[in-house]
Amino acid sequence: MRCLVTGVAGFIGSHLAEALLAQGHSVIGVDCFTDYYAREYKERNIIKLREKKGFQLIEADLLNLNLAALLKQIDWVFHLAAQAGVRASWGTSFEIYTHNNILATQKLLEASKEADLKGFIYASSSSVYGDTKQFPTPERSYLQPLSPYGVTKLAGEHLCYLYYKNFGVPTVALRYFTVYGPRQRPDMAFHRFLKAALMGGEIEIYGDGQQSRDFTYISDIVTAHLLAMEQFYPGEVFNIGGGSQTVLKTALDLLPQITGKEVKITYKPVQKGDVRHTAADITKAQRMLGYQPRVKLPEGLEAEWQWIKEIYK
Ligand SMILES: NC(=O)c1ccc[n+]([C@@H]2O[C@H](COP(=O)([O-])OP(=O)(O)OC[C@H]3O[C@@H](n4cnc5c(N)ncnc54)[C@H](O)[C@@H]3O)[C@@H](O)[C@H]2O)c1
Question: What residues pair up with 239 in beta bridges, in sequence order?
């Protein structure tokens, strides 16, 4: 199959592209190397990909591409390109979020109307739920994002559904819950914590440390996409979580065992847009896709630690 992966130089997109190639698919990757974080990380993410047969990189903003022409060569779209990050999405930055998360998605869907796609998989987020009170949270839970970022991810999801309903674009949305592992973005908590353990710095926690997340290891996220291709349900939305809810402080307590180092923690006020808890009800993905998260937190953190040591050596 001929696959398009948008956001291919990012954390998740680069892993997904490698997995698709390993399965014998060809991949065209699009990325414009936004400055949300340094380009050197993204270049490192795609070092192996660049050498692979069957891979082609197009460095461009989705909004400046002739997508109709591009999609003529494509069977499957994996739309991961986005401006990530909850805390940075306020104020004047919102324009960047609307550009990369809403407009780019709409343009890709518009071009998909005329294409002959087998599937269009959209990277959605647990942030669409906001501060829900229902745990674990099922897909049908009330959607009320707490951050501008969450609003743009939900808008993208709604756009996918309406292009499916009105024009038959075969879209599926996967709502990822806090993804971690090698290549994790440098603004994300475990990356910052493990880097601090290595370099001897301090870390800042926003809130009292009692907030919890459903951490999902990168290989489980990638597998969910491959399963969603095999068992394809156009118009559907699936939670993709790690299978358990972990209090942040508990995750931090694992770090000295993994890294052999103590890290000084400073507690800062809760940031606007941060939700208190996330926990995915993955029953639907288990039942319909056969999804089962495999990697537990200590094992996944160990793998991320090995990677952190490698990149900051
Ligand atoms: N990492 C997580 O925990 C998490 C959780 C939920 C959802 N998501 C979603 O998963 C996707 C990937 O996240 P990530 O953590 O890998 O982020 P990332 O920032 O590492 O990757 C996103 C990539 O998209 C590219 N991009 C952004 N706008 C673009 C545009 N207009 N044209 C072309 N390229 C563009 C960026 O340059 C970047 O390389 C995003 O859609 C994000 O919203 C991530």
Answer: 175
